[in-house]
Design a protein that fits this description.
This protein is about 35% helix and about 15% strand. With about 375 residues, it is an alpha/beta fold. Strands 3-2-1-4-5-6-14-15 form an 8-stranded mixed sheet, sandwiched between helices. Strands 9-8-7-10-11-13-12 form a 7-stranded mixed sheet, sandwiched between helices.
């Protein structure tokens, strides 16, 4: 199969869909890879490094899209990229279609086969291609929060770990999933006084054991949350309802009870955010102040540490990319129910139920879409 990797075009997006190690792996399996020039330079991967492992460097995105049978990216395709997709071409990337009708219609219209990283599942019910970015965002949330707490950034001027004789910061983490666990890990490591809230008693028990009593676990109720945020120096919003909008757990009224200069970091912002006052910001202007509280709501946090994020993401996506290339997309999806969950659009049909429901569009199950192979001749 001929696999193409275009350069990402979203503002301040430096990640890339394949690393040289990934290219080498695909080449070892007998596939060809073309990479758009400068695709990896933002994170220190040169064209020469791609060429050294057998990739062909091409001058523009149009060439990548025109020649590739499968396009591997990071961010959802922008309008100009959607226009270059063709019928039967495989697109493997993050899509986040539920809040994005324009992109959804463009993908349906193109007739491509769009497989979304964020809906691929695993045997434990996890989201293995979303998890590495959640790990990055969780760890980063404390780093970003600690910086925002500095006086010059509008914070209270509290050092997260304190020093001998001075109390450390109070950090509250809402949600004990992948993001919450990673945030707590860094905050505990920096010496903060950490409280984590969740609605799952088994998860709280696991966190309690894992941290060996070095943090406080609380069962999440409106009351518990209200009491925790009043005392906090830093609050991390780490609540995810897969594929759906995040619940607004911290209200404006609660914000008014918090100390001026308190910092909140809303990691759930790409799903709408879990603070009532959250609105998406960028790495260029990451924070704003509302009700005296500093809000950090950068929608693509992992993009800030693009090199680490690229390696973390491609470690997770490569086995799936190899399966798609080795077997052809149809057999790969039929063989692996977890990868099949990633199929969002197939030859003009929407094949992911939550997206169809969110956008009020017609839906066909992935199983159904893939079934009659003789009616869908493979496109070569």
């Amino acid at each position: 199969m001929l696999i193409g990797v275009p350069k990402e075009i979203k503002v301040h997006e430096y990640r890339v869909g394949l690393t040289p190690a990934g290219v080498r792996e695909l080449k070892a399996h007998g596939h060809q890879v073309i990479v758009q020039t400068q695709a990896g330079t933002g994170i220190g991967i040169s064209d020469a490094q791609y060429e050294a492992v057998g990739a062909e460097i091409v001058g523009d995105a149009a060439t990548v899209f025109a020649r590739a049978e499968m396009v591997i990216k990071v961010k959802e395709p922008q309008a100009v990229e959607c226009a270059m997709l063709r019928e039967g071409q495989v697109l493997f990337t993050y899509l986040h279609l539920a809040p994005d009708p324009e992109q959804t219609h463009a993908l349906v219209k193109s007739g491509c086969v769009a497989i979304a990283y964020e809906t691929v599942t695993d045997a434990r019910g996890g989201l293995p291609l979303l998890a590495p970015m959640s790990e990055v965002a969780g760890r980063m949330s404390i780093q970003a929060g600690a910086h925002a707490m500095e006086k010059a950034q509008g914070g209270t001027g509290v050092l997260i770990g304190g020093v001998p004789g001075v109390a450390p910061a109070d950090v509250v983490v809402i949600g004990g999933g992948v993001v919450g666990y990673n945030a707590a890990r860094v905050a505990v490591g920096m010496g903060a006084n950490v409280t984590i809230l969740d609605r799952s008693l088994t998860r709280l028990a696991w966190l309690d054991t894992t941290f060996d009593g070095r943090l406080t676990t609380l069962y999440s109720t409106v009351d518990a949350l209200e009491n925790a945020v009043i005392k906090a120096d830093l609050v991390i919003g780490a609540v995810l309802v897969p594929g759906a909008a995040a619940p607004k757990l911290v209200t404006r009224a609660m914000l008014k009870t918090m100390r001026p200069g308190t910092v909140i970091v809303d990691v759930a912002i790409d799903q709408g955010g879990c603070f009532e006052t959250s609105r998406a910001t960028t790495h260029q202007n990451p924070t704003y102040v509302e009700e005296g509280v500093v809000h950090y709501c950068v929608a693509n946090m992992p993009g800030g540490v693009a090199r680490t994020s690229t390696f973390a993401l491609t470690n997770a996506t490569l086995p799936f990319a190899l399966a798609l290339a080795d077997k052809g997309y149809r057999k790969a999806l039929l063989d692996d129910p977890h990868l099949r969950e990633g199929l969002n659009v197939h030859l003009g049909k929407l094949t992911y139920k939550a997206v169809a429901e969110a956008l009020n569009l017609e839906y066909q199950s992935a199983q159904e879409a893939l079934k009659p192979w003789w009616q869908h001749p493979e496109h070569h």
